[in-house]
């Protein structure tokens, strides 16, 4: 630019009329800016509220559609704190169910892992127990009868006692349970006499899944109770008694409730578990406790770490009542026979010292075989009996998808993303202003 041109432009600028600016121009700009911000916040709130009422993104309908995988995982991990709840999106039938403390209510909750490998959380009421999983994995019977496929929950009347887990029939259409008293702990006087009200008895009932009805099959004082259905579902074996010294094993006809056989049990004997009836229907498997009767009362190396309970299995001939001891002795911890696999019993074995669990198979005359079945959380996971007996084991480890979340988690995520985007935009504008200021300071003056 020449000196003459620069002088001409300066003169023209001096003669030009000044720009008329309203006195409240700055306030108008600020109001416009705040209106835009308020509109953006309102839009975010409307989107968030809409998202809370819309169905959550369902992984089972997309990624896992049609993947009814009949393989049990070697390991199932903990759920996320924001894991989708079962009540909002049922995912049954279940592949496994286990208890966890990894939930937002900081209390014990259930994790239901569906056959599509999806994870769902079930928040329990105070004092509520997990319940019993049906052999086909569709139903969970505890304080209520829950259909894991539809999510429907039926309250039984009268309610069954949660102190004794219900035992399912092989076809998953009925279960044997106890209508008991809240006071199930024996109370004795100074001389050892029983002072509980002996006129109050416990009803042993058959729960019908199709209609939720209860039918009494036996009346007994069931401070000691275990049961097992025969393979054809026509008979049920129950162990009842007022205490460990007064136990009796009864074989009942399911249709009539008639007692077909009664066998006295010693204080160290017990029905091995819900699958204690052998596949051929001729034998019942019992557990015999060796040494001390209960692990907490055992004399151990230290008071804090008592010796682990030991046991071995016995076979009771249903027709003759003859009991035969198994050759393998000294098995450790607290057992529960839950299935049969390749002709051998499968037990979940709990170590009461650290609440750890192992699923083991006991081939005849051989050492226990630990099966690759574990899950995070508390105690032993619960698997459908049909899956334990027929499915492939040692499948890939399962971890929940972070996108199987409750609706509020998507709202929080959206707000975090919007806040982050707004912060990035604001920082970008500040950086551009600073860059322009620095460039204007270093720009050379035009020649005169």
From TrEMBL:
Coiled coil: none annotated. It comes from the Bacteria. Keywords: Membrane, Transmembrane, Transmembrane helix. The chain crosses the membrane at residues 37-54, 408-428. This is WD40 repeat protein. It comes from Catellatospora coxensis.
């Amino acid at each position: 630019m020449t000196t003459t041109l620069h002088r001409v432009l300066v003169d023209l600028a001096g003669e030009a009329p000044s720009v008329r600016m309203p006195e409240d121009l700055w306030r108008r700009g600020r109001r416009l800016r705040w209106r835009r911000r308020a509109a953006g916040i309102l839009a975010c709130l409307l989107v968030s509220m809409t998202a809370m009422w819309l169905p959550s993104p369902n992984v089972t309908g997309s990624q896992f559609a049609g993947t009814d995988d009949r393989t049990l995982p070697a390991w199932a991990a903990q759920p996320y704190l924001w894991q989708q709840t079962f009540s909002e999106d049922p995912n049954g039938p279940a592949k496994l169910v286990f208890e966890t403390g990894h939930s937002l209510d900081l209390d014990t909750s259930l994790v239901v892992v569906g056959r599509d490998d999806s994870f769902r959380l079930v928040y329990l009421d105070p004092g509520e127990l997990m319940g019993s999983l049906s052999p086909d994995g569709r139903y969970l019977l505890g304080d209520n009868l829950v259909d894991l496929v539809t999510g429907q929950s039926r309250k039984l009347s009268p309610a069954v006692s949660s102190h004794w887990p219900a035992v399912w029939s092989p076809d998953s259409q009925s279960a044997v349970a106890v209508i008991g008293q809240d006071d199930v702990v024996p109370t004795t006087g100074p001389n050892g006499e029983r002072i509980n009200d002996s006129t109050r008895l416990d009803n042993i009932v058959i729960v019908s899944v199709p209609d939720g009805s209860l039918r009494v099959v036996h009346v007994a004082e069931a401070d000691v109770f275990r049961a097992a259905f025969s393979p054809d579902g026509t008979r049920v074996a129950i162990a009842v008694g007022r205490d460990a010294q007064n136990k009796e094993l009864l074989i009942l006809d399911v249709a009539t409730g008639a007692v077909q056989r009664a066998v006295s049990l010693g204080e160290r004997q017990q029905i091995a578990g819900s699958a204690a009836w052998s596949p051929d229907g001729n034998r019942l498997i019992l557990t015999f406790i060796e040494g001390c009767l209960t692990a907490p009362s055992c004399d151990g190396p230290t008071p804090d770490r008592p010796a682990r309970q030991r046991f071995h299995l016995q076979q009771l001939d249903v027709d003759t009542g003859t009991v035969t001891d198994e050759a393998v002795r000294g098995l450790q911890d607290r057992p529960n026979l839950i299935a049969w696999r390749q002709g051998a019993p499968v037990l979940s074995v709990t170590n009461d010292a650290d609440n750890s669990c192992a699923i083991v198979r006991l081939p005849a005359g051989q050492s226990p075989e630990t099966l690759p079945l574990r899950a995070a959380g508390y105690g032993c996971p619960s698997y459908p009996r049909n899956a334990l007996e027929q499915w492939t084991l040692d499948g890939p480890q399962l971890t929940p998808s972070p996108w199987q979340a409750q609706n509020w988690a998507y709202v929080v995520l959206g707000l975090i993303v919007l806040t982050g985007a707004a912060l990035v935009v604001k920082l970008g504008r500040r950086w551009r202003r600073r860059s322009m200021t620095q460039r204007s300071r270093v720009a050379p003056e035009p020649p005169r």
